[in-house]
Amino acid sequence: MHLCYRRWRKRKRMVVLEMEKLEELLAPESLSQPQGQETERARKMEALEKGKQGLGKPCRDLIGLRDEKGKSYADISEVLRVPMGTVMSRLARCRETLRELVQRVISGEMNG
After folding, report:
1. What is the percent of the chain where pLDDT is above 90?
2. What's the DSSP call for residue 96?
3. Tally of domains in the chain
4. Percent of the chain, pLDDT > 70?
């Protein structure tokens, strides 16, 4: 039982961190930043899009359902006909892969 609580708390922290990063990226004040910061944000968004193109279709679809369409884990579970835990673990792996791809795009290892 303690192991389950520990995992739940850890997952909750991970979600909070991801949400904070997303909110920081999409904050209204970041849209009206000086030119240098604006171009930096645009560069990061471009890297994110290139990184998404490097993902396989299942990961792109899963991330699209959750992050772009705002579907809940339960909704995604029904759509994909897999258990909710599977959705959560697949999404975590896909996000980690996306993070690595974006870092590669930013560092210049991966071209268009």
Report:
1. 13
2. H
3. 1
4. 72
Query: pTM for the complete prediction?
Result: 0.60
109 backbone dihedrals φ, ψ, rounded to 5°: -75, -25
Asked whether residue 100 is assigned to any structural domain, the reply reads: yes
Q: What residues have CB less than 8 Å from 87, skipping those under 6 apart?
A: 62, 73, 76, 77, 80
Total residues belonging to the chain: 112
* Whether 77 contacts 84, CB under 8 Å: yes
Confidence of residue 32 (pLDDT cuts 50, 70, 90): low
Closest CA to 77 of 90, 67, 68, 96: 90
Domain of 57? 37-107
- pLDDT given for residue 86 in this prediction: 92
* CA 54/CA 101 separation, integer angstroms: 7
Query: Could you tell me the two tokens for 19?
Result: 């949400």
In a domain, 25, yes or no: no
Instruction: Report the distance separating Cα 8 and Cα 24, nearest Å.
Output: 24
Res 35 pLDDT > 80: no
